[in-house]
Write a structure and sequence with these properties.
Pfam family, one: Amidase
Radius of gyration: 21 Å
Strand order of the largest sheet: 1-3-2-4-6-5-10-11-9-7-8
Distance between the termini: 12 Å
Number of strands: 11
CATH topology of one domain: Amidase signature (AS) enzymes
CATH superfamily of one domain: Amidase signature (AS) domain
Family: Belongs to the amidase family. GatA subfamily.
Strand content: 5-15%
Bound molecules: asparagine
InterPro entries: Amidase, Amidase_CS, Amidase_dom, AS_sf, GatA
Shape: globular
Structural class: alpha/beta
EC number: 6.3.5.7
GO molecular function: ATP binding; glutaminyl-tRNA synthase (glutamine-hydrolyzing) activity; transferase activity
């Protein structure tokens, strides 16, 4: 049961081969056994999970089960959960119990999904390795001495090690796709505005977007279908009819299911910077895509190389504003001893935030300050527009864009700890997609020389989620990279 797909779990639950309580217990026991080694969860909510599972069993017995009723899942600890600790990976929120559920959490509860607990993450989602978490680093299930990626590293490691069949995440600059690639699973970041940000602790609001992790594109499609949808409480939520992202997957299998699909390969992504073993796996995957009927065409994203400097102005600027609410008064940690009010703010924030968060607040405050705004923030916004335009030009020549998710496989824990800029550079292929607000997916497509997974990134036009998930699904029907498991999950 541990390795069953979501549709298989659905059938087993509906046929009463297993109850939701039994299924939740199976995963909770696995978390107890394996989490000490992986550190994928910050909070395990056994009681809440079993109560939700009992309710799901009643719903199943009454014949009222939906696609996710009784299915266990993990939430990234950035999503507020009523009555359950929400830390955002920070000491600042180490005692924060939200009085309400994030929109996404509410939708999944209403669907009858069973929340197992809260997944570890980089502090306030700032990082690409999960090492900035106040609760300690997450280990990569494929090799425990390596990072799982970040910032949604706990969610990705949990799914890869089968501590949960599916998990939520968020992606501001790659935080779903990069850990999915490093952990050998599938992850999708939808179009900006598709998933409500209400109750998702804000990092960089114009970039933050909720996303889904699963062992396959099909499992991601099921989870995303339940997460997406208009929410008036998020001013950037898009008012669109709900979509069933699994509908296209039901089309009959054929030898060349991707006939007519044009895949654009950005010249700049294949030029330099990609490790040899990543390139080999990505190119082999493209051969497979062609065998399934797709054609490939070279496209250009001339400004994509400027995505990292633009992002590391815009994201810190927004974070410096968003994180000002953590002042020891309204939320979060308060210093035990202080003089006047300013001293209390200063000490509380100095004690509550870790080094990476402080670095970004400082950079963000600087680029927004009088006299520097035009030189940095405004320029970055201009670059952002050029990058988005590049994608629109490229997407006139193709239906989706493919390339590596990351330049290398997962690095060793500690390897980049003293070199934040090196870590920022590792997000080179994912960040431009957030700046443009486009949907992106990462799927496993092979292994590097070190035995660690390689991810293939697919990027679509706005609201192209169905096309991305369908392409990945057809690839997964013909290959078994997504079915490979780390020894810890055997
Ligand atoms: N939050 C993200 O999407 C991760 C990105 N590496 C960042 O640190 O901003």
């Amino acid at each position: 049961m541990i390795h069953a797909s979501l549709p298989e779990l659905r059938r087993a639950l509906d046929a009463r081969q297993i109850s939701s309580v039994e299924l939740a217990t199976l995963f909770l026991d696995r978390i107890d056994a394996l989490n000490p080694a992986l550190n994928a969860f910050i909070t395990v909510d056994r009681e809440g999970a079993l109560a939700a599972a009992r309710a799901a069993d009643e719903r199943i017995a009454a014949g009222q089960a939906g696609a996710l009723t009784g299915i266990p899942l993990a939430h990234k600890d950035v999503f507020c959960t009523e009555g359950v600790l929400t830390t955002c990976g920070s000491k600042m929120l180490s005692n924060f119990v939200s009085p309400y559920d994030a929109h996404v959490v509410g939708l999944l509860k209403a669907a009858g999904a069973v929340g197992l607990g809260k997944a570890n993450m980089d502090e306030f989602a700032m990082g690409s390795s999960n090492e900035s978490s106040f609760y300690g680093p997450v280990k990569n299930p494929w090799q425990l001495a390596h990072v799982p990626g970040g910032s949604s590293g706990g969610s990705a490691a949990a799914v890869a090690a089968r501590l949960a069949p599916i998990a939520t995440g968020t992606d501001t600059g790659g935080s779903v796709r990069q850990p999915a690639a490093f952990c050998g699973i599938t992850g999708i970041k939808p179009t900006y505005g598709l998933v409500s940000r209400y109750g998702m602790i804000a990092y960089a609001s114009s970039l933050d977007q909720g996303g889904a992790f699963g062992a396959s594109a099909e499992d991601c499609a099921l989870l995303l279908s339940a997460m997406a949808g208009f929410d008036p409480r998020d001013s950037t939520s898009l008012e669109r009819p709900a979509e069933d992202y699994t509908a296209a997957l039901a089309a009959p299998a054929s030898a060349r299911p991707l006939e007519g699909l044009r895949i654009g390969l950005p010249r700049e992504f294949f030029a330099e910077g990609m490790a040899g073993d990543v390139r080999a796996a990505v190119e082999a995957a493209l051969v497979q895509y062609r065998a399934l009927g797709a054609t490939t065409v070279e496209v250009s994203l001339p400004n994509a190389k400027l995505a990292i400097p633009a992002y590391y102005v815009i994201a810190p600027a927004e974070c410096s504003s968003n994180l000002s609410r953590f002042d020891g008064v309204r939320y979060g940690h308060r210093a035990a001893e202080y003089g006047d009010l300013a001293d209390m703010y200063g000490k509380s924030r100095a004690e509550g935030f870790g080094a990476e968060v402080k670095r970004r607040i400082l950079v963000g405050t600087y680029v927004l300050s009088h006299g520097y705004y035009d030189a940095y923030y405004l320029q970055a916004q201009r670059l952002r527009r050029l990058i988005a335009q590049d994608f629109q030009v490229a997407l006139q020549q193709c239906d989706l864009i493919a390339g590596p998710t990351t330049p290398t496989t997962a690095w060793a824990l500690g390897q980049m700890a003293d070199d934040p800029v090196q870590m920022y550079l590792s997000d080179i292929y994912t960040i431009a997609v957030n700046l443009a607000g486009l949907p992106g997916l990462s799927q496993p497509c092979g292994f590097g020389a070190d035995g660690l997974p390689v991810g293939l990134q697919l990027v679509g036009d706005y609201f192209g989620e169905t096309r991305l998930l369908n392409a990945a699904y057809r690839f997964q029907q013909a290959t078994d990279w997504h079915a490979r498991r780390p020894a810890i999950a055997a």
